[in-house]
Amino acid sequence: MNDLNIAIVSADMSRLDGIGRALASAARRLQVTEMKCTPQRLGALASQLAADILIVDCAEGGDNAAALTSLEQVGMQHPRMAIIILSQCESADFLIQAMRCGVREVLPSNADGAAFDAAIERIAAKTGRSGDQAGRSGKVLAFASCKGGSGATFLATNLGHALAEQGAKVALFDLNLQFGDAALYLSDGKAATSIADVVQGIYRLDEAFLKANMMQVSPDFDLLAAPEDPALGLEIKPEHIDALLALATRHYDYVILDVGRNLDGLTIRALDHADTIFAVVQASLPFVHGAKRMLGIFQSLEYPTRKIELVVNRFQKDGALTIKDLEAACGVSIRLTVPLHEEAAEAAANQGVAVTALAGGSPIAKSLAGWAGALLGKAPAEENHWFNRFSRFNRILKRA
Ligand SMILES: Nc1ncnc2c1ncn2[C@@H]1O[C@H](COP(=O)(O)OP(=O)(O)O)[C@@H](O)[C@H]1O
Ligand SMILES: [Mg+2]
């Protein structure tokens, strides 16, 4: 387990020394830095802070309201940093306000080594930094739509369901913050809470809080919906995406992101974290145009080519454009196709049920199940078109 980085802030040098000494007796290894500053000025210096835990000494008689406003600024910039304040003020109002501003613990000004130790362990347990936590490291799969209607949301939701059916623990984040509709593909009702609720309470982000705001699609599949009111999406910042993904990848095997067509600061931050980006197209010219533009953006973002997979959805073997044509036009090799199947896709979307659950025998469900199986390292399904391409290829290789 890595050392925890602790930053101590106080306006008084002797208090900084005293707190540093108290921390020296902590049970775990800590990297401690000290900063001479009043809590009221800390907001202005927020960008210079880098720590897992920030301990702020709020001196008696200081302006508590200004200190909390300043800490709120710090919390916004560093949502993953836990804040402990030292204060003699015990009024309920002050405590509640402090928690609202993102403070996790309020300790008395004369807190000793044991009090710090206990507070640090509580924080470590809550944020998943405790030594006994296995620390899952889930894969992040992002779905981008090269042109509206490509099927990115349909594939993201249904692949998520197929992965969960095959034993993986899956989370899906709908990052179409303006018009997200992923929940509609998997349920017949609206999601009660969304990513906006999680971000409003980002200072108390932990597994339980995240899960409480997600829709449970099936026992191993949770969905974090987009906000109903697009205005709420504006509150969500790239730092929040960092914090959400850091937490989710510790608790899920796969975190699926639906970023839709919208490439902005926030979705690009999400894509930065992705292990694989599935760019969804269809085999027709307007989609190819969209794909080329999107691949160009990924290139300018310097994403390695192995990170991008072009997925041809609604694929028909006798269509006007072949896979070879698409590969030549887009300049990448294509390994993934999902067949067109209006009946199964429409019935699933209309009922808000995953296609593998509703029409498991349909070509589209088999294709998705094969895709999920391949990601999980299981034998590919024979019926699946793209895996057949591979298995034939493999057979040829074996004979060579
Ligand atoms: N392979 C497929 N066969 C038939 N219909 C599909 C297929 N994939 C997606 N659809 C349908 O296409 C429509 C648009 O899909 P959607 O995922 O919302 O697109 P996007 O998110 O890329 O804008 C949906 O009604 C969906 O049910
Ligand atoms: Mg969509």
TrEMBL record:
InterPro entries: AAA_dom, CheY-like_superfamily, P-loop_NTPase, ParA/MinD_ATPase, Sig_transdc_resp-reg_receiver. Keywords: ATP-binding, Nucleotide-binding, Phosphoprotein. It holds the Pfam family AAA_31. PANTHER family: SEPTUM SITE-DETERMINING PROTEIN MIND HOMOLOG, CHLOROPLASTIC (PTHR43384:SF6), SEPTUM SITE-DETERMINING PROTEIN MIND HOMOLOG, CHLOROPLASTIC-RELATED (PTHR43384). This is AAA family ATPase. The modification 4-aspartylphosphate is found at residue 57. It comes from the Bacteria. The keyword Cell wall biogenesis/degradation does not apply. Residues 5-124 form the Response regulatory domain.
